[in-house]
Amino acid sequence: MFSRVIYILLLVLFVACSKTGGERTITTSNDYAQGYAVEKFDGYTVVEVQNPWDTLKVLQRYILVSKSADLSDEMPKGVVVRTPVESAAVYASLHCGMIKELGKESVITGICDVHYNADNDLKRRVAEGEVADLGSSFLPDVEKIVSIAPEVIIVSSYKDNRDDKVARLGIPIIEMADYMESVPLARTEWIKFLSMLFDCEYVADSLFRETEAQYNNLAEMGRDAKNRPTLFCELKTGGVWYQPGGDSYMARLYRDAGIDYLWCDNKDKGSISLSYEEVFARGADADLWIMKYADECDKTLKSLKDEYLPYRNFASYKTKNVWGVNALKVPFYEEMPLYPQYVLRDLMLIAHPELFNESDTTRYFKKLQDE
Amino acid sequence: MSRRPILFLSILTLLLFIANLFMGSVNIPFADAFNVLLGFETDNKVAESIVLQSRLPQAITALLAGASLAVAGLLLQTAFSNPLAGPSILGITSGASLGVAVVMLATGGVMGAVSGSMTNVLGAFIGAILTLGVIILFSMVVRSNVMLLIVGIMVGYVTNSAITLLNFFASEKNVFSYTIWGMGDFSSVSLSDMPLFVGVSFIGIILSVLLMKPLNALLLGDRYAANLGVNIKRARVLLLLCTGLLTAIVTSYCGPISFLGLAVPHVARLMTKSSNHHTLLPATLLAGSATALVCTLVCSMPWQSGVLPLNAITPIFGAPVIIYVIINRSKIEYFN
Lengths: 371, 336
What we know:
The complex is a heterodimer of chains A (371) and B (336). Chain A has 371 residues and is α/β, with parallel strands linked by helices. Helix content of chain A is 34%, strand content 24%. Chain A has two domains: 17-209, 3-Layer(aba) Sandwich (Rossmann fold); 214-367, Rossmann fold. Chain A starts with a helix and ends with a strand. Chain B has 14 helices and no strands. The two termini of chain B are 22 Å apart. Classes of the chains: A alpha/beta (371), B mainly alpha (336).
């Protein structure tokens, strides 16, 4: 009888061990990012990137295995990436920026959309032939990718833009769905995922902690601010006036900055299309008007009026409380995902100048001049 | 005999114009809108701004753009004796689109990426006039109308290939602005742009009225027209110039509006049951305005969120007309 119990116990132990392979597992939960989850096993790490359009589904499962370790059959199914990655083709300039922040720019061996990359150093390396120009990110040059043979290809995952030709190359494609995160710090936290590829998690961790602390300090000030100025944004494009959805990244920044964004009751994560009439009906008396644009010349109150005369009817136009960021002149979109605290500080300087010193100036936004 | 359709169309256009002033994506009390329009004092400053500075210019733009495109379509259909000719078929719309593409995409937004700004209008106008010039040059060499039509279509293809290239190399944001421009919009002409828009449209429309006589002669065929003393070559150049001007000004300000120019002349013909331009031209003008006003109204109905793009609506009105005409082509004898 006793030996039978021992036998059963041993059997249970055996089954339990064989299921996990006897490995320790640690699930690292992200503080903010919802789009990926990390589980660490002995000898390998599993990163699951969720499908941003169907959060119940997994978009990709990556098995990160050190180059010094052996692959084993017990590892779960997924895209195997051997770390540290030493060469990568990177489609988006934003991810190039993230890799640079990690101090790993030397691993970038090919980039897309060179013309729109804000990094002059990288452009120089392309000109010198050190980094390959892979063409447009919508239609990358497959032959060039093959010729540089990167260990991974880092892409922004678009819903309908799965490039089968590139997928067939057999090179692991790292799908970054960071831009789908609607909380500023969540988007920043994706740098941790990138850092795992290059075995420099400690760098990403300290970078993230610093950003987080600065952001949360500012956001606390914003929440405590006594007055909350009202705001509407952007400009009319053709017949449509897009405003950020109430649950979007920008709306979250406005809220954290202590601003009463006029469409904060909306539940959209993207943007909402409105007519001039609708924006004017709600925003006629708003205190602030903030816009993002990309022009060779900075916009002025006069150029706004010339563009579309009814713009001058807004109270914020009359009181000259119109602010804009010219993305062609300042690296706004490049820096915002990594350093949302800078944008937050700008917004707070605009909305609550009383909380800052008089000598403090904005980094990206400028008040629109008369002419 | 054919006064009735014109009277009906006049009343319809007037009613639609008024409806456009009173209805939109924001609900404005009837009394407030009424007071604003009659110039009475009102406390509702929002209503005042919306009605006078947004709805009124938009309704005037729709009225003139609809009329201009429809007349351009009619002129081309008569000139080419082809019921499927329209302002977009000669490549003029594509020329305007190329002009805008150069402004928005090739310069990387250097010249202002926002639709409705003066640089876009200028780009579109220059693009349209240049393609028009090419077509007129060919019209001197090519005798046959069908051949000229084919040349027009080819010019359209070439400009489209340039646009595709520009789009491919442009930034996402600029491609987006360009796409939005391509969806058509009557709201971009503000009161300050009105004099130019109204002026050029009027010149085109008056020129088309002056062309009524040679147009009627052309219905009988080139040889008959020549026998009637019409200078065919000059008439053709004038026709092209007139349609080019009308299409260019509308496309510059409102984007490429599909189907209006193609479908409306058929509606006018079906209503007046005539191919005499003395009746057909005014009917086409009015039907064009009415159709454009209906489309504007549908685009900004209060029960939907925001506004719909114009080109999502115009084919709904245009396509059934064209299909009807094609199916009943043997019964409807427009051209000899």
